[in-house]
Amino acid sequence: MSSFTHPPKHLVREYLQRRNRAAGPPPTPEEIRRQLGWELMMPQAKLPGGRN
Prior knowledge:
The chain is mainly alpha-helical. It has helices at residues 9-21, 29-36.
């Protein structure tokens, strides 16, 4: 079983502060992962039900 690591808390806090100031709809989960650099840590396996 794979072990997932999460972005550091300070990066998540900074991201949330930027998102609170941004206008428009929230980004997709994939865009959030890309902005936090989390996609580099995630395996490229598909989850059941068509979710990534």
